[in-house]
Amino acid sequence: MPKTNTSHFMRRILTILLFMGMIISPIPRPAAANDLTPLSITLEGYDYPYPVSFLPLSTEGQDLKMAYMDVQPRGGGNGKTVVLLHGKNFFGAYWQKTIAFLADNGYRVVVPDQIGFGKSSKPNIHYSFHALAANTKKLLDTLGIKEVTVVGHSMGGMLATRFALMYPETATRLVLENPIGLEDYRPIVPFIPVDEQYRAELNATAEGILAYHRTYFVNWRPEFGAYAEVAARQKLSGEFPRLAMSSALTYEMIYEQPVCHEFGNVKAKTLLIIGQADRTVVGKARVKKELLPQVGQYPELGRKTARQIPRARLVALDNAGHIPHMEQTEKFHGALLDFLKEQD
């Protein structure tokens, strides 16, 4: 094999190993730009585990499309529906194992990509949890679904809470998996304007993205790197600045629209599933060092929130970080199914 081809081959192998988590290093090695192929900001060509449909929406004079999966139960089903809401740095496909588990147990499963995420449109609009909740309600109305259990992870937990507050007749049960926003970030995280957050999104690197994803887990496994690779490949798209702006705007939404002050108004029967090793704080890099031991303390935040929500109980999962449904899948599924089967 010619020397130039050998060099290119070795670079590709190193990149693959990097994203599979097989190179052990405290600082992930950078991947050369030509080792990753560009990926559309709306994930064209990226396969989801189930067929994807689109709901047309109109927002602020813009015609948009909201992607979603609507997975029917295996067998006859039990007539119940679960909605799965993704986190900020993810999209509906990362619920793959949970979708299959719920469908196998008789549940219809609806999994939207919120506007600004996944295969959905990436507009420059005013993002709000109220608007995202209204979009989700329109999707359910279109599908003819009247009652659901809403499961929200990370940012999806903030959205699920807002949905339950806005539509208590629809969200009869609520599951919050390591939601962000269990504390109000405004007093602890210094404000930055959208333009500064936008520049930070533009300047993110493949190795930085992977390093951040590693912080989600107690025990890293090779398959977890797949979602970091998606984000790194999207950076190579000619449309990436548009995705970077929508990401900056959704950061602003999280920062400026807390839901934790309204937990006492939630009427739905609620389950909190909290990975005990999680220390996530949105904007953590800007928190003063002396405050870090006091913020993002999910064990205590979970207990506090369970006391605030009138009909809530807590399941604490040891040896799990920010994404229990990926890291402690069986335990997460067991707790979720037990809750779904409980009598009101």
TrEMBL record:
Pfam families: Abhydrolase_1. Keywords: Hydrolase. SUPFAM superfamilies: alpha/beta-Hydrolases. InterPro entries: AB_hydrolase_1, AB_hydrolase_fold, AB_hydrolase_sf, Epox_hydrolase-like. GO terms for molecular function: hydrolase activity. Residues 81-327 form the AB hydrolase-1 domain. It comes from the Bacteria. This is Alpha/beta hydrolase.
